[in-house]
Amino acid sequence: MCAAIRRPTSSLGPKVTSERARGEEGGPLVSRRSFLAGLGGATALALVPTSASRAAALALASTSASRAVAAQPAADPSVINDWNATAVGVITDAGRANAEAFLPLAFAQAAVYNAVMGITGRYELYRSDARFDPMASPQAAAAAAAHRVLTTYFSDVPAAATRLADAYAASVGALPNDPSTTAGLQYGKQAAEHFIGMRANDGRYGSNTFEMPPATGVWRPTPPANAPFLAKYLCETTPLMIESPGQFRPVPPPALTSAEYAADFEEVKAFGSKEGSARTPLQTETGLFISSAPIGPLQAGLRDLTVRNGMDISDRARLFAAVNMSVADAQIACWDCKVRYGLWRPSTAIQLAEEDGNPATAADPTWEPLIPNPAYPDYPSGLNSLFGSASRALTRLLGTERIDLTMTSPVTNTTRTYEFADSLRADAVNGRVWAGIHFRFADTVGMAMGQQIADWVADRYFMPRG
Hints:
Structural class: mainly alpha
Largest sheet: 2 strands, antiparallel
Number of strands: 4
Helix content: 40-55%
Shape: elongated
CATH class of the largest domain: Mainly Alpha
Order of helices and strands: EEHHHHHHHHHHHHHEEHH
């Protein structure tokens, strides 16, 4: 059994209890363990910002830059939240509320970020040398940028087109009919078109065929859907910020004959099974909760966080861009690994264990996971790369490990408030084991890789101007 983890009680919700994931020792940069050691200690789940002094310096620089901007046009910051919610709705309308969601979401947030920063001047633009227009309305620019990006990619989906038309009419209707609004709408559209042009040939339209020859240990479609590899094109997609999909690629997963593989095999076999598992009711709820959280619940939690923290339009645009663009790059990097290593899912491994050459594993041909497997390989975990990058981006933006992130699951109908980032990371790592769809080593490596990517991004992008 895993040891219990103690969490501070949040003033914004009930204390959440889960199990602590096993720690891993530090090691050289070229190993899986480097993902943990390189992030600041022997535990993958309880991490502090890269540098407290750096976070304080960034916060001070942000304040100074804010004071340096003269006569920022008044703007209702809720436009940022409204269009984030609209983007989630549009992506869901298009049937892409899965591993494919974060790339178009990041596109919309990047365009909104540049549209707002080109007017307020608070933070450095993302790969743009556009002329600043401080007299335009940033509220109008944000709406126009989001609408233009989402319409470009989803206008062929009737429900999405209707949603976008309604949202745009509501945004424009809330603005005064004056030159500032006109200029803002034009600026936002131009910011979006610049971004769309940058992404015109970014590899998103590559093959989705998984070409690794069938063999023991190699991923194959799993019941009940037996669906082909989902979004394989992500491995060939040009990242938004990191240098290449393979920049943060870890070493291969442990050999099927290794003791590490056998230990994680036995854990997921015992705790992740659909029937007769060793899970507690809380562990079952955690597996279901975290598996439903990456898209709608996470974005709703971010919107709630910006409101409770009283963020203005610039800081909201920055938060949604930094988090979602970091996540998109983490997903691209993760898919690079999934395609390269092609490791089978635990359900396949357990059902066919007589083939793995490891005397410490035993087959169970009838074993099923708590939830159906996603249609792509095991290593590393996509959800953990997602929450690793999202949580790290948040701690870097906020300058503290306290994130106070509240999410509600539509599957369990429960709400959890994560006062500190390590609590969220623990649930993500443990929850995918308890759901039966990942080996623990896939979770810890995905989590660490996501955090490394977010740190790399935070050191180079979304910086205060001046």
